[in-house]
Amino acid sequence: MTSKRTVPIAIAVAIAALVVIAGFLFTQSPIFRAALKVSAYRTSESWSRNNITDLPDYVSVVEYSVSNVGGAAAAKVDITVRMDQEIYLQKSIHALNPSGEYTDSLTVSVTYDFSRSVAIEAYCPDSHDSASVLLDAELPRSFALADEQDVPKLYITPNEGNVMSTEDSVIRNKFPLIPNWIALRDWVGNNIDYRYDSNVHGEADFWQLPQETLILRTGDCEDFSILLCSLLRANGWSANDVYVVVGENDGSRHAWVKINLGVLGWYNIEPQADGWNTLIGDYLRLSGYTALGYFNDSQFHWASHANATVTPILD
Question: Which domains can be identified in the chain, with CATH numbers?
Answer without folding.
Answer: 36-136 (2.60.40.10), 151-302 (3.10.620.30)
